[in-house]
Design goal:
181 residues, mainly alpha, Arc Repressor Mutant, subunit A
Length: 181
């Protein structure tokens, strides 16, 4: 997937400025596809020159005008082609897993440091799971009343929740194993 596709999806959900898109990436899309503000602005310029998006200048009182982007027909067709393309299984690259394997080649002090790192890492993911669960309660209080777009957003969020729960279970197993060494 290219950043362009994530931007197209976000803009089809709601047009917005580069700044607004960056905020959306930080709040939701960012757990599945990350991008810096600079990357988003650079890709938006390219998408605009390719005719995938169009910008509307919006005046703001006391602030510089902003450019709000929306998807064109060409952008919709591009996204539709991408949606039809097959998805290949992704290679898992997990730095912590390699560190855990590497713990076999260190001493007790090194394993103790790794134990502390796994504990810290687990706490971050526990907080992220809590954020996801709070967002689910806030944004999807009545799953039966959701429109198509909301139902699809919710199923992606549920995937994030399931992933975090699986990761926390695995990290508990790692901690138990490290403590037993």
């Amino acid at each position: 997937m290219a950043l362009e596709h994530a931007i197209l999806v976000s803009l089809l959900e709601r047009p917005g400025s580069g700044y607004e898109l960056a905020g959306r990436f930080e709040r939701s899309i960012g757990r599945f596809w990350t991008a810096t503000h600079q990357q988003i602005y650079r890709v938006l310029r390219r998408m605009e020159s390719d005719g995938w998006v169009v910008a509307e200048e919006i005046g703001q009182d006391g602030r510089p005008d902003k450019r709000s982007f929306s998807v064109t027909g060409v952008g919709r067709r591009t996204l539709a082609e991408w949606l039809r393309a097959p998805v290949q299984p992704e290679a898992v690259r997990h730095e912590l897993a390699v560190k855990i394997r590497g713990a076999a080649f260190t001493d007790a002090a090194g394993r103790a440091e790794l134990l502390a790192e796994v504990t810290r890492y687990r706490a971050e993911h526990e907080a992220l799971l809590a954020t996801y669960l709070n967002g689910e309660k806030r944004d999807f209080p009545d799953p039966d009343a959701l429109d198509v777009g909301q139902r699809l957003q919710h199923v992606v969020l549920r995937g994030g929740i399931a992933y975090e729960r699986m990761l926390l279970d695995w990290l508990d197993d790692v901690l138990q194993t490290l403590r037993a060494l």
